[in-house]
Every structure is written in C-alpha cells, then in structure tokens.
Predict the 3D structure of the following.
Amino acid sequence: MAPHPETSLAALQQRLGHRFRDQRLLQRALTHRSFGADHNERLEFLGDAVLSLAVSTLLFERFADSAEGDLTRVRAHLVREDSLHRLALALGLPEVMRLSEGELRGGGALRPSILADALEAVIGAVHVEAGFDAAMAVVRRLFGEIIQATEADSWSKDAKTELQEWLQARKLPVPAYRILATRGQAHAQTFEVECAVAPLGLAAQGEGRSRRAAEQEAAAAMLELLRASDRPGGPLRS
C-alpha cells in the first residue's frame, strides 16, 4: 500500500530538518507544471540561486587554500542534475511529487530533471518561508558529509576536458556532440545530447537544463564507458 501523502510529507520534512509552517508552500515546491498552474518553477529559479550560494559558502569554509577555479569545478559537480537527482531519491521526493496522470505514466516521478528541479524548489521554498539561514541549514544537512569527504583536487577537471585528454593520449580524435532532443518551454528547457567517438563506434547520452550541462553529462557517461572498456578483458583491450 502506498504511504499516505501527509505521512510522506512529514517524513520528507524530518529528513530535511525543516518543518514548514505553510504546507501549501511545500506542496507548490513539489508540483510539476503538468499538474497545474500553481507549479514550482518560480521556486526552482530561486532555489537554484540559494543552493549555489549555500554550497559556495560550504566549500569556502571547507577549502580555505583552494583557488577560485577549483572551487567552481567542485561546486559544479555537487549541484549538477545527477547529484541533485540522487539526493532527491534519498529524500523520497518521487513519493510526494504532484504530476499529471500522463507525466506519471511516463515515469516523470523518477525523471532526473524533474526531481532535481523539485529539490531546488524545496530549497527555494525554505528560503521564502524562513530565510537564508534556514535554507543554509537544509543545504548543510544535505551536502555537509559529501563536502567533508571531498578533496578539492578530486574534480580538478570537468568531464569534457578529461574526456578530450583521455582520447588525445590515445591519438584519437575529439568527440562529437549533437543535440538529440529539446523538451519543455523556452524558459525551462531540458536538452538531451549525444557524445560520440566515431573511431571506437561508441556513443553516450546526457541530459541537462542547458546544452553545456547536457554535454558534460554525456562526456561523463562516455568516460565511464571508455574506462570500463579499457579494463583487461574490455573491448578496447581485447
């Protein structure tokens, strides 16, 4: 039996460490535009900025001697769609999302872009109701352990740069990127991009809220594919 919505919302707030005085604000943060007009896109817009500032603050505290470029790269990895999707799953957002019947049938409750946006909207809602300090406390709860376990040089290069260097070291051409699909309204689009390495006959896909973000996701997926193939017994080593 599916959990009662109120029970799921209470559990979500316990995991967040924030109890909403206005439950309607939380429900709006969890409402996809397919469900109705009172959806979460404005809260997601605000939450994106709040999350960036909060994570930047945590990184500034954690890595006192790191350069701006290194901090920027670590932040980009922490707040990218894939990372937010994993956190949203851990929080149980799929259980409380409000989507249209069609979106639900299409698997929207588990779609990375929808869950990442909803998590940002929840952070935005905390900020609206209780201010930045409360939102900062939620972000610290979500990201604190991850950041404490992170080394600044572990993400010294973005995925596209790392992929290009991997290929060049093996005298292979740079990968080719192309947009496979674009979904959503102009102000809230999701891009699906393919990264292909033609000489190896390999292709990988990625999604993101910008073409650049989607290309980074596709490059990261390609790197994982290449590394798996390059292990003993893999296609590139056989």
User: Anything to note?
Assistant: Strands lie at 176-183, 190-197, 202-208. The chain has two domains: 5-153, 159-230. The radius of gyration is 19 Å. Residues 41-62 form the longest helix (22 residues).
